[in-house]
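Title: Comparing notes on inverse folding

I've been comparing how different people in this forum approach sequence design from structure. To keep things fair, I'm posting one structure and asking everyone to reply with a full sequence. Here's the target:
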């Protein structure tokens, strides 16, 4: 897939797909917001404003208040690609959010997902 195309996609559209994935598995939007906030530094209110602003998915990440330095601890595969092997920083950050939502959809709680990443901080 053309990475440029992903960067240019409408943030609101992509985010609604992430929220929908979580909801289909019995989770709620606030959980996706919490994971997104942990990764990007946005508050739930800021995320909603970004949805209304009609910004690109790439811009959402490029303008994030504070990308969490512990995001480097997010490992595994997403769409058949190992996150730690993605060289393009923006694409890696985008795939990190995908991975967090995947973990949520697999039944893990937000607390467990974040605790694992935070305990791996020294590794």
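Reply #1:
Here's my take.
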């Amino acid at each position: 897939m053309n990475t440029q195309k992903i960067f240019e996609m409408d943030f609101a559209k992509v985010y609604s797909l992430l929220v929908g994935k979580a909801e289909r598995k019995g989770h709620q939007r606030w959980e996706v917001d919490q994971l997104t906030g942990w990764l990007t530094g946005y508050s739930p209110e800021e995320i909603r404003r970004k949805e209304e602003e009609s910004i690109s998915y790439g811009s959402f990440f490029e303008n994030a208040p504070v990308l969490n330095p512990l995001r480097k601890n997010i490992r595994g595969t997403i769409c058949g690609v190992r996150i730690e092997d993605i060289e393009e920083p923006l694409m890696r950050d985008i795939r990190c959010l995908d991975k967090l939502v995947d973990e949520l959809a697999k039944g893990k709680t937000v607390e467990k997902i974040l605790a694992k990443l935070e305990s791996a901080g020294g590794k």
